Amino acid sequence: MTLRHRLAEHISLALYRAATSALRPLLPLHLKKRLQRGREHSERWREKQGFSSLPRPVGKLVWLHAVGLGEVLALRGMIVALQTCDPCLQFLVTSSTTASAETFDKNLPPRTIHQFLPLDTGRYTQRFLDHWRPDLALWSEQDIWPGLVTQTARRGIPQALINVRMNATSFQRKRKVKALYRAVYRNFALISAQDSDTAAALTKLDAQQDIRIDGSLKPHSPALRVSAPDLAILRTALAGKSVWVAASCHPEDEAIALAAQRQLLAKAPGTLLLLAPRYPSRRAQIIAKLSGFNVKVRSRGELPDAHTEVFVADSFAEMGLWYALSDMALIGGTFSDVDGHNPWEALQLECGVMHGPRYGNFVSDYNALIEAQACFSVYNAKDIVDILTMQSSRGLDGYRHLQRDQSAALSDLAERLVGLIKP
Fold this sequence. Notes:
- By secondary structure, the chain is α/β, with parallel strands linked by helices.
- It is built from 18 helices and 14 strands.
- The protein has 2 domains: 3-23 and 45-222 and 408-418, 3-Layer(aba) Sandwich (Rossmann fold), CATH 3.40.50.11720; 228-392, Glycogen Phosphorylase B (Rossmann fold, 3-Layer(aba) Sandwich).
- The longest helix has 21 residues, at 3-23.
- The radius of gyration is 23 Å and the shape is globular.
- The two termini are 31 Å apart.
């Protein structure tokens, strides 16, 4: 590393710290405005100022961070693997969004607690680290906070970057501040990428560490939890119906799903579509599209009956329930510029997977599933109808074979990470 590179890193970190320090007086107002808009947790929002709402557990503590819902849920598989390596470990998971907190709280692994990540300014992050004193810090995907990473390193806490996925847009954005990221990456003892393209991008950003390619964490996560009483009630209500779900759907996915449902009802009147939007707040917009269907709505406390054709599953943290009730899922975002959502959650609950042509956010995941014949590609409503009337178990059989082949890399990575914890 040349003196010029070192100087560039020093300047970039100094500028970053100066910017976040200058913004700190404005941050309480920013958080309160978000609170008024319902975008922060009404009781726990001060966690983002570093005020922890729970005591630190006794013993060795592993802190894991991911920003959003899917990334946070994926951490559960890593937690299970780490627990296998060292049953005495305790776990702190941080994230940034209220949806991730609400859903993760309903799917907590053993000896695991959740907090919101503090905003990346000195006083807030110092409070956080003073309270939690982690023995190992694991940053997942690519949501890394330069100030907190460097503060953690100064305290001698080992850190690793895991489950990293970087697309071309993200790489170009990081390359513009390459010196800053080079300085941040130096603090990681280990980096684990999801695919070879991400590993190559990290190398171009001058990450000098041991860069592994271990695939995604998402296929290793435990199945989403399902409320047994709700499952029993709904199975009784749906008895005799053929059920499929449009999961985490957006407007473009809904249009395809509803067109398919109209065709299916002409062939099999007992078919029911569970319409589970990514954002339940869109319920009014969705219900307005359902003219001509017999509809029931979850948020109204309604249950489907013998005549129901579309059930609007507009609730948070119940996706496991909808997968458990369905034979097949159309994964949302795969017909829109969202570029896909997680297919593994459906498969883990024995629900087959269909996907549209757009899955840029999960390229390695879908490519693995396609190669294993563990999913179905669809391009229009007719394709969906053909698959749902085919009654094939091919997708689930392919998934089970793929699942058996993927466990070794996770176990090896978990052992390496536990080895970073100082005696």
